[in-house]
Design brief:
D-Maltodextrin-Binding Protein, domain 2, about 270 residues, 12 strands, five-stranded mixed sheet, homodimer, about 25% strand, Fructose-1,6-Bisphosphatase, Chain A, domain 1, alpha+beta
Chain lengths: ~270, ~270
């Protein structure tokens, strides 16, 4: 992708993400019709839709040839990744939004001919932006994130994962995952895929595995994690298909080989 | 406990907790002998000890008749709860301290003749203090926390818990816990018992269960959760023994009955 064009897209994307976040914060704290605000589920549904529509309007007016692949379906629901595609989750971490009124994110990944060029994950309530351009490093606000720690031993790794991995499931024998949990140093569960990608990039956790995520949950995160030397695949080590749901493993490349090996033992 | 005396203790306890937190922040960010700082494990061990010693010195100089029950063992390691006992975890969430350099807390519970009178949980890096006096409500900094949401259905509850509950363990059949995880709305794992108590009090999660905690992990949290109408027991519904390790369940009283009932089905 042309660097100058990409820089222009990047500047606008950041501006719009911040603007959308401000609207969400205002509606969370400020006056809103009581009917909607009394039910956090209604509020998040409304804001999810409005935020995606906001991005659709902005992108289409400024970059009319770009496509949008968004959770709420107001975009183009593209069937290929040809051209420039904005892959957007307007509110990632819906349960956190509803229950916690924090710990959710706007996630925007911008891909050109299938290549992740820009990743933005905006922790709305904390007002913290994780952002990256391919080949130019990843940042948390103004601070460049260092390369991922060279943790190569499973027993030093903290892994983000939910608890369903340890229940009977279609992907992996739960006994293998129980051994995995005992072998690693620790587990964390934060309830937002986008933020767990951002935390992985930041080194706050050493990796994240998920059973089933959509492109908009991971598109931005993959770009950001790439820029600190991490790697993201499905749990069989295959490249993530940005047009379909997928399992996910993101971490550094040494851990990745070891974790993939462990998961393989129990793969159904 | 005499109200005037308690207010005096409260003011000093808050002052010392903030002072200790400031020292930890300074040592985390500021210059420190390189040898210690290069190894986060050494740093936390050093700060754990120094922070507890700081509290011991402060408490003993100002309230010479008080006892201290602290994780690091610089206090009195009391065998009874007679009199006034400060139950202190200088750094709760050691793994978070080491890996994340945030999401850990100073936890101080002050008990008089076995009754929890004061609870302080200080999220050091966020500079957020959860605090309560028995009968006077719980606060997050200057804002009083409302009573816990009246969630009575398991399927509406987000529960803080680690992943070992779902592995073979000595307490509960893991199959029962797997059903539990599927029945509740969601799970979170934050890696600090004190903060998970604080989040429960705040309504960010609806409860927290743990397999084995020490008095200093829970002493402050119990007081704070009490003040928003919550209840804390072991997983058999018994009062927590502040002189021994214990299982823990903290949540609102309606959820508590339901969760205890579910846990009982698999209790070993």
């Amino acid at each position: 992708m042309d660097k100058k064009l990409r820089d222009d897209i990047y500047i606008h994307a950041i501006e719009w993400v911040r603007e959308a976040g401000e609207v969400i914060r205002d509606k969370m704290y400020g006056p809103l019709d009581i009917e909607t605000k009394s039910n956090a589920n209604d509020l998040v549904t409304k804001l999810d839709k409005e935020t995606e529509q906001f991005f659709v309007a902005k992108v289409k007016s400024k970059f009319s040839g770009h496509f949008i692949h968004g959770e709420e379906g107001y975009g183009d629901s593209p069937t290929s990744l040809d051209g420039t595609v904005w892959i957007i989750d307007p509110i990632d971490g819906t349960m956190n939004f509803v229950h916690q009124k924090r710990n959710f994110a706007i996630s925007v990944g911008i891909y050109h001919d299938g290549v992740g060029e820009i990743g933005l994950i905006y922790d709305v309530m904390a007002n913290v932006l994780y952002h990256a351009k391919k080949g130019e490093g990843a940042y948390k606000d103004d601070v460049q994130l260092p390369s991922l720690p060279e943790i190569g031993n499973i027993n030093e790794a903290i892994i983000g994962m939910n608890h369903f991995w340890l229940c009977e499931n279609k992907l992996i024998e739960e006994q293998v995952m129980q051994k995995f949990v005992k072998d690693i140093r620790g587990t964390r569960t934060y309830g937002s895929a986008a933020l767990e990608f951002a935390y992985t990039a930041e080194g706050i956790i050493d990796g994240y595995i998920s059973m089933r995520l959509s492109p908009w949950d991971v598109a931005a995160g993959i770009v950001i994690v790439n820029e600190v030397g991490g790697i993201t695949t499905d749990i069989d080590g295959k490249i993530v298909n940005m047009l379909d749901k997928s399992t996910i493993l993101t971490c550094n490349s040494v851990l990745q080989k070891k974790i993939l090996g462990m998961l393989k033992e129990g793969r159904k």
